[in-house]
Design a protein that fits this description.
The chain is an alpha/beta fold. It has seven helices and seven strands. It has a seven-stranded mixed beta sheet with strand order 3-2-1-4-5-7-6, with helices on both faces. Bound molecules: S-adenosylmethionine.
Length: 222
């Protein structure tokens, strides 16, 4: 049943069908949802924390989609204006996001959805944003192609992502530690997200290093 605004509560939305990797990702985030904010505290003190307001300062108006909203850590910085649409694979993460939106008095359209199969028509959004998401999406190029499809022509895509550091020792070390990190945190630490943006056919506008080469603020267009 939907509420007065026509939004179906997160707990009543059907889970999107998932392949094995996507189902595993969903299960991992459902499992860590209660402790996610605690786990994230360390990252928030660094480049991710400073990058959030920076990212959202670019997303000022129009119809906006946040992908992989998680527990809603970026909601403090949402533009005041039209309702933001925010999706996530994990119902448990979204339940926390829903609570945070209520606490902040925000009207957010929260949906259980897989970025690899977005349930929106082509050219729906003026801008899309994501923070620390394409490290977890099983097929990031498929997900990024979906962003290209749902954003309006020339629309902006802003990503704040930790990536593989392409240096002789640290890069291979990140590769070696990656399987353990995926099991513990649900996230790959060795994703080449800038390259993936290009491979998805998006136009790369800028890539800014935030605090060394680990975290990047990526601006792309459809
Ligand atoms: C590391 S958390 C980041 C959450 C939030 N963006 C933040 O900045 O705190 C990654 C999020 O991406 C979501 N996610 C992973 N794969 C996804 C997919 N295929 N579609 C939608 N969301 C996905 C996870 O459920 C999780 O909430």
């Amino acid at each position: 049943m939907s509420n007065q605004a026509g939004i179906i509560p997160v707990s009543r939305q059907p889970k999107p069908p998932a392949d094995r990797q996507t189902a595993l990702t969903r299960a991992r985030y459902d499992r860590i949802a209660p402790i996610y904010d605690l786990m994230q505290k360390f990252m928030e003190r660094g480049a991710i924390g400073t990058g959030r307001p920076r990212l959202w300062s670019h997303v000022a108006e129009g119809r906006v989609l946040e992908v992989g909203v998680g527990t809603g850590q970026s909601m403090d910085y949402y533009p005041r204006g039209p309702r933001v649409t925010a999706i996530d694979l994990s119902e448990r993460m979204l339940q926390r996001a829903s609570k945070r939106a209520a606490e902040l008095g925000l009207d957010v359209d929260l949906r259980v959805m897989d970025v690899q199969h977005l349930d929106f028509p082509d050219r729906t959004f003026d801008a899309v944003a994501a923070t620390c998401v394409f490290c977890s999406v099983p097929d990031p190029i498929v997900g990024l192609r979906e962003l290209k499809r749902v954003v309006k022509p020339g629309g902006d895509i802003w990503l704040l992502e930790h990536v593989r550091i392409d240096r002789p020792v640290i890069g291979p070390l990140m590769d070696a530690l990656n399987p353990m990190m995926v099991r513990m945190m649900g996230a790959n630490i060795n994703r080449r997200t800038v390259e993936n943006v290009r491979l998805a056919g998006l136009q790369l506008i800028t890539v800014e290093n935030l605090g060394g080469e680990l975290v990047k603020l990526i601006h792309a267009r459809s």
